[in-house]
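Below: protein 1.
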Amino acid sequence: MTELAVGVDIGGTKVAGGVVNAAGEVIARTRRDTPHRSTSPDVVEDTIVSVVEELLADHADRVVAVGIGAAGFVAADRATVVFAPHLSWRHEPLRDALASRLALPIFVDNDANAAIWAEYRFGAGRGESHLVMVNLGTGIGGGLVLGGQVFRGRHGIAGEFGHMQVVPNGIRCECGNKGCWEQYASGNALVREARALWESGSPTVTDDLRSMVGRPEDLTGPLITEAARRGDRLARELLGEIGTWLGIGIADLAAALDPGTFVIGGGVSAAGDLLLEPARAAFRAQLTGRGYRPEARIVAAQLGNEAGVVGAADLARAGVTAS
């Protein structure tokens, strides 16, 4: 029988876990809500332990390791969460804290690293040695597989693409800087622009969108995407603008990293070609040396919400094998 590993994906709203086999298949699942605005790291760790123990109940004899994908900066030692704004973790020794309660090898990584590893091994990046993943959600996260290995950087926090400055003195970002990429090409940017048009009384806001949503404060990225799929012209226009900004940023990443494939994940990627076609067009228009160099593919992620769980588990399994 193949060895199993547990993967846990920790975000600002949920702690999702799964038992994953060597083929990347999730054979058991569970989830908990992330303790809301907890000021104690122990509360989140209690939730993680609860998730893992539930999954081990039926598979303990075959599970060889536990992988944790955390939304935050994870040090190069794959043990310490340096900074996780939504989880109150500051230089938190997460691996050691969990190892004292779970009698299995523990491996901690950034959630985007886990997701890109899953896409590299089992999803849209299979067969590609140089892969960049851009996750469009509330903000923009990212990960890199270079030469068949996760690239974490000298300090473990590579891939924070969302905070590249694309507009000098642009929109203020939550990170404290101005003009960050995620202020123009994320789910938050999509909703912000739609609400601003609605609240200003713009005639571009269609009756269809108004009847579908009701109030501007109820607008969400998935609702805008659904409206675009139905043909709503404003929703399509806004997704096109997000896609254009996405392509501009990807062209900059191509100049720096020269990958073979960009995988686009996160909630906004559910828009498919309504987002990706404008991104591809902007990418081609902005690419340095266009016409004289191979162009990277831009494709949608395949594993959806399970990528973090699958990748965290597979990285943990690989860590045990290598040790």
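Below: protein 2.
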Amino acid sequence: MPDPRARSLEEYLVAAARLGDRAAAERLVRLRGPRLLSHAARLLSNPDEARDVVQEAWLEIFRGLPGLRDERAFPAWSHRIVTRRVAKHIAAAQRRRKAADATAETTEPFAAEEGALSADAEAVRRAIKALPPDHQAAISLFYLDEMSVAEVAIALDTPPGTIKTRLMHARAKLAQALKGSCDE
């Protein structure tokens, strides 16, 4: 059974944060945050991803706080938000994996159609396959499917800035990998 004083403190902090008290909001994060983080970590089995999800959840929590009618409902309400965020995170990861798998499937037929690939083309294909799935998907959609950054962002359900960053890192990794294969 939860400590009634701690529960009362949390209810007070929720009410104060709803009225715009920044210090109360910060204290609420310190008080409830570890529980939300452990909940997300249990669902995701990845502490880094759990931290990201909980950070996003806090933004949604504070945006929705004025609509919360009963401060006593805050614990369950905030956990539900984290659970929904985890579900969205998992769904996005599955979409990224499917996009990466589809990209791998679409590059394979080209190799079969052309018969023997040139050594350079084979080196590029191997280098792309060595990239992380999210980088593979971004590179493939951008260069092979000739999508714009905005279109890739929509396809991967990821912000355009993230797509630009993934493309930058993927290009750097490809250049490094291809430089190494050219030196041999």
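The chain has a mean pLDDT of 84.
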